[in-house]
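Cast an eye over my tokenised protein here and flag anything odd:

===
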Amino acid sequence: MNESIVTAGDKVKSVRESKFISLETVAERTGFTVEQVEMIEKGEALSLAPLIKIARALGVRLGTFLDDIESDGPVVCLSKDYDKGVRFNSSSDSVKHLDYYSLARAKSGRYMEPFIIEINNSKGEEFAFSSHEGEEFIYCLNGVVEIVYGKKSYSLNPGDSIYYDSIVEHKIQAVNGKAKILAVVYAPA
């Protein structure tokens, strides 16, 4: 299992326990089952949308689960090092084709979450929609990316971007099976 998945899940559990909030209460606040919350805490079902819901339920920033060494000043992430940071991929069927690499894990107090996301999906594979509070900015780095947003579909080539409200159901996939994007997610506190 990927170490950063365990770390993010451990942080969820640690925050929940430090606030003396039960699994049942988190489940009730998020709409998840107790079993789903337990899976997230074990790092078995982590993806962005559930982490945002749990952050809201626990009253913390999304970055709380992704932070590493905190810095109040600027954080530099060199391209040769971005894959050494917090990384999580998901066993959730809706985003199992996405590998996230955090670019700002050391920045404390942030409201935006920048990621490099590698997309790897089989041609014709279908994924469930996702939705969560906040906004997203997607910039296509390589490959061709299809964003299905509500009932519309958008195709992004390298250099193209899209900005949208993430409360609307959306999904991302690579047209030819592989692509890389820069994603910046804003999740209100």
Observations:
- The chain has a mean pLDDT of 80.
